[in-house]
Amino acid sequence: MNDQKLELDKGVGTEGADPWHLLRGDVSFPAAVLNERRMQHNLDWMRSFIDAYGVSLAPHGKTTMAPKLFQRQIAHGAWGITVATSQQAQVAAAHGVRRILIANQIVGKANVAAVVGLLAIPDQHVICIVDSAAGVALLGEGCRSAGVVLDVLIELAPEPDQPGYRAGVRDEAGLADVLAALDAWGDHLRLGGVEFYEGVLPDEAHVRRFVRRAVEVTKRLIADDRIDRTPAILSGAGSAWYDIVADETASMAKAGEVEVVLRPGCYISHDDGLYRVAQEAILKRNAVAPTFGEALLPALRIWAVVQSIPDPTRAIIAMGKRDVAFDAGLPRPATLFRPDRDDRPAEAPVHWEVTGLMDQHAYLTIAPGDDIAVGDVIAFDISHPCLTFDKWRKILVVDDDFTVIDVVETFF
Hints:
Elements: E1 31-35, H1 36-53, E2 56-57, H2 67-75, E3 81-83, H3 86-94, E4 99-105, H4 109-118, E5 125-130, H5 133-146, E6 150-156, H6 172-184, E7 189-196, H7 204-223, E8 232-236, H8 242-254, E9 258-262, H9 274-285, E10 300-311, E11 314-317, E12 332-337, E13 346-347, E14 353-357, E15 362-365, E16 377-381, H10 386-389, E17 394-398, E18 404-409
Parallel strand pairs: 1-17, 2-9, 3-4, 4-5, 5-6, 6-7, 7-8, 8-9
Antiparallel strand pairs: 1-10, 10-11, 10-16, 11-15, 12-13, 12-16, 14-15, 17-18
Helix pairs in contact: 3-4, 4-5, 5-6, 7-8
């Protein structure tokens, strides 16, 4: 795991201090760096998208686990923040997030107690999800012990013949079991609506079919007077298919039948790999997304130094698996900067390629005669921000002149 020096915050927005500068030798590398302009663009873009569809946004906080970024997302129209664990919920609540959606089953006595304990915070709203009678009973017992009432959503899973495997109710019998269990715990658990996650499905057709099932189940529960919240909540959407979820649910949202809550978490930083490809697909199939000008921009890069050039076709970079995601594509060299020679970074040669990572090293394939030297600084675009953010405790925010204007702390 990586930390800048404890005194990193000195000079960042401190009166009378010189700001840190990325190119001046003030920062130790490797470093995780967010570009402020691009991040702001992404916040504005997603707000325009949800406003156009009349839906709400609860970005998944597991991506960044950065309360400072949570607050920026809320300031730009987010309804709340989504999390996946009791620890993440505690972090969000401790930093002032008053509406938290836990899009995961909370199981285990200590986990349930931690979530239930959050309800003692004034004006704190927490929503959990359930998919079994056993899970309902665990939450119900915890709420009864604490004397509180907790809002829950029923999680749907893709139907048995669909190629998606996650937690969730998969058939009518399972749904009936959960509803019966909720009836038994009605003094302590309040059904607020339906939740689903479509990201495990392989294509648009499967996603649309699944979302339509979620809409149908939600309408049926409303008609049967089984939902205790008005309006009911219908929540889905990761960072790859949020446009399809919006398409299929917007009419209900605009009619006031439900509060549709989308949960993409990666948009604030975006990336140049997995989610760049997903966003390109969204722009092709969705009529609304291209109307907001420039699409989402990759705002997170890892900056690292050339450590060694052991042969004419390989450079060793001081950046490895402990610094950057590698599960959804290896980092890509974006810019090259040589201290004491360059005023600004230049684009890295297109033929440079990271071909492997070790714990603290990257193998960069180069060509004989390339202009590269030990001590050069390379900025790398990344794929899958979730597994890059979690490797850092402090992330620098820079302006377009590479002045450090903020430091974002993470709480993984």
